[in-house]
Amino acid sequence: MVSAFLLLSILSKVLVVKSSQSHWTSSYKQELLIAIVVLQIKATTCVYNTHHKDDSKIPLHIGGFFGIPDTEVYTSIPTIVQTAVDHVNNLTGILDGYELRLRSGPRVGVNPASALCLLHEFIYTSPDILMAWGPLFSKEAEVVNEVAPVYNIIQVTGANSPNLKNRVRFPLTIRMSLDEDLLNPARAAFVRHMGWKKVAIVYEDIEYFRENMESLAITLQKSGITVIAVEVVNNVDEPIVQIHNLMRHDARIIFAGFYVDSAVKFFCELVNKTNNFFGSRHVWILPGWFQDHWWRSAVPDVICDVHKLYEVLGGHISISWMNRVDNATKLNFGGVKPHPHHMPFINAILNDDSELKIRHHSEAYDSIILMALALNESLGTMYTSNVSANQIHATNETASLLWNNAINTDFIGLTGHLYINESGFRCQDDLIIYVYQNQGGRRVRVLEYINGTGEFEVIQNRSFQWQGPYTPVDGVTRELQHKVVSSKLRISLFTLAVLGLVLAVGFLFVNIKFRHKKVIKVTSPHLNNLIIGGCVCLYMGVFLIAVDTSELREKLFVTMCGGRMWFICVGISLAFGSLFMKTYRIRAIFVDAVTKLRKIKMSDSRLITYVLALVVLDTLVVWTWYILGDPNSVIKELQPENSTILVVDGREVLVVPIIRYCSADSEKVYVTCLYLMKGLLLAAGVFLAWETRSISIAELNDSRNIAMCVYVVALTCVFVVPISNLNGTNLELKVAVIGFCTIAANTTVLCLVFLPKIFQLCMTKESEFHISLMPKTTRGARVSPQDRISKLRLELHQKEALLRKLIGEYNGAEYYKQLCDQRM
Asked: Of 706, 682, 685, 684, nearest to 696 (Cα)?
């Protein structure tokens, strides 16, 4: 036996060569260095066994890496492999004249250092091995299979790490197990099938799990499933940080990637350090190759309550494939059928109660058949070029020949139709994937994945068994609920708005019917009609503010937003603009015509034109907002009014109120334009109202009332506009303030403008109605200086007129006297 120091020298050379290659990562260099140090201690204990029966045949040696855990599923694999070798040696048509012999080492646990030790024995002790079965686990395979090609040894492994697809690192690896990534579409489909929309991922920081879980995360996201957290456990002895992160994200559906011993440590830490991160609310989805009652595996220095572990893992899910020939009579090893006396053993494998046993044992048996067929096709060439003393040596030519024949192998084995592609990966068309649940400590097949459709079929008489009364959910469901005004408020606003419309229609009837009466005529009935029209628009705006828009489609909702804006803007322009024009004319008549003795032209048509100009400006701004602003509806989530989580049909529901409003590109520009126009109109109206505050002409019966209307509208706008721009939480208060204030202001304006007219129309006869520009005051009433000056100016004007008349009469009398004297 070569000393450990010689092995150290050899592997150090390999490390130097590999270090120059870009794919050789620092972690792998460190791992191999550790393995080398361990080998210095353990190399002297490595042993091997050679099995042979017939010395008359030329021996063909293959290796066996049986680094497997001491569990029911795996302990019988060496026996399966040796029996398969014996079956091959008894078959006629495969390796005739040759005997396949198996060399293997001690059956220790999964240990890369021990596997490297055994590889060393295979390389440096006779006889040479041409091919090797195993390692079965990726932890060993990723180390051994990277070194074996240096010595021209082809590895036929059951490990399914995605990293083994790297042909640069693993050029002579044939994978009998299917790629773990093939399960990712089924995993994503299962999540959708269960109605889950968000999951979390936690895995051990090993290259095998890293590659697979990263691929899984991408597959889930492409399927529309949110991955709320991806936690990497660097130290499985202290995973509490990752556990707390999962708790912080409220992870309920969790994919976990660990080896068995690491999984025991992780879940024991979870049980010991948390109180509520397990049970009926959580579902763990674990690797499909965990055996029954795996959590009972003894791990050194780990103390854990098995009953609590079962509470965590009692209903965990696993997803795995089953590749098994449906009928043993279909077995065909490249044209060679198994002997009848082989069938009891083969049927025992295929009919085992444990599906994990069927899977691993069938793959192990078929691996030997694959190697035998590859050797059988290569014998002629190998024997003539690489044989000495009845022994075929492992060379580059031998490895290349075996590889080419292996990838062209096609047969029907225990795992079904088996063929290897050019990259050394097993391909299988009839792959069946199942979803398993741990029930009573045992894996139970519940669903079958229908490949290609993404659907599942329930296994007869099988169903999921959850710890709680309902299927677990992926978390608290945030149920969005449109916040709308209450029915009471909506009915109140609609009722008052309808009454306001009736009142407006009544005033319109009076204004039109009696428009030729002096009482109505002197107050500009056409402008009165515009005031009524504006109030009607504002009442309509109240309807649009209070109506329930939660169920409206996008286009109709945006149209309603534009309609609401137009009704309110045009209503203000018509009503307030008409009041503004009437106030302006009163001021012009009193100040310019009476006080300054100027003739003015203030016809109704001119004033109406000004009002309509305001309406056109409003329409233009709203139309531009609708056409060029590209408005759309926006959903805003509000703070839940009640943080209590409701349980509805097994779902945890948190009701989140939302409001819906319109938003457009450059919306601030349009809003600013509207506010500037209305603000200037209000400011001018308030100024004119203040200027004419002292005018009280009884016959011109709405002069002071118009000023009051201006004040009412201005104050209402100042109060309502800021509230209307708040998309706050209290929608009820917002709609109530805007609606009631609008109705109150509208109704006040209508009453102030039209009730005095109706009263005077009823109380004054047409013949007695006249207009006097002399302001009337009551006895003892205080007259303002402006009123006094105006009165004196008016009296002066009248006296000057009388004086001119008298002078004219006097001059006329003198002229008549002179004429009489001349005649005499």
From this structure: 706
